[in-house]
Design a protein that fits this description.
Layout (H helix, E strand, L loop, with lengths): L3 H9 L3 H12 L10 H13 L3 E3 L2 E5 L2 E6 L2 E4 L2 E8 L7 H12 L6 E6 L5 H8 L6 E5 H10 L2 H15 L13
Parallel strand pairs: 5-6, 6-7
Antiparallel strand pairs: 1-4, 2-3, 4-5
Helix pairs in contact: 1-3, 2-3, 2-6
């Protein structure tokens, strides 16, 4: 059985081109060398690391012997601190991951953001719920956007765009597909 250190070593062996190839495998649902969902978690954290962000790899939070949270990663970039939640599902993510991340954010300082990355987007109910989570901010990232930021090697700039849009428009789902400046 692989450990977190094994996954970190495996993903750190990949550069941007390697991440793009892994992303294509994830999109196709063909990552047999990774446990379900792990490839996406480590890909997102590695992309931020390659782009110069400070990161924390996926980890568990325990109280005593009991695991109370599983965090898919943390990103510290350009003054923002973000918890990551990844969903490598064949269907759009619904409200449950948003509610889970909201509860995790409630245990953190007020300025911490949430990011949910969903390979296949979000249901309308999830988009609506994410818009009304004040004071927590949870930014939504769809699969197509991940392909864009990997190609442009600019995931930190994308985070800034999404965050600024949330600040200005009050909406968590800025769409990077039409972004020309990344």
């Amino acid at each position: 059985m692989s450990t977190s250190d094994d996954y970190i070593a495996r993903i750190r062996s990949l550069d941007w081109g390697g991440l793009q190839s892994l992303w294509q495998e994830i999109r196709a649902g063909q990552t047999p060398e990774w446990p379900p969902g792990k490839a996406l978690e480590y890909l997102i954290v590695r992309a931020f690391e390659l782009d110069g962000a400070e990161v924390a790899w996926p980890f568990e939070v325990k109280i005593g012997e009991e695991t109370v949270e599983q965090i898919d990663g943390v990103v510290y970039s350009d003054g923002l601190s973000s918890l990551i939640e990844c969903k490598d599902w064949a269907t759009p993510a619904n409200v449950e991951p948003i509610a889970k991340l909201r509860n995790q954010l409630l245990r953190r300082p007020s300025g911490v953001l949430g990011m949910i990355v969903s390979r296949n987007g979000f249901t309308e109910a999830a988009r609506s719920l994410a818009q009304f989570l004040a004071p927590q901010t949870i930014l939504l990232w769809e699969g197509e956007e991940i392909g864009i930021v990997l190609q442009r090697q600019a995931i930190r700039a994308a985070l800034q765009r999404k965050y600024r849009y949330a600040v200005e428009k009050g909406a968590p789902d800025y769409n990077l597909r039409n972004e020309k400046l990344l």
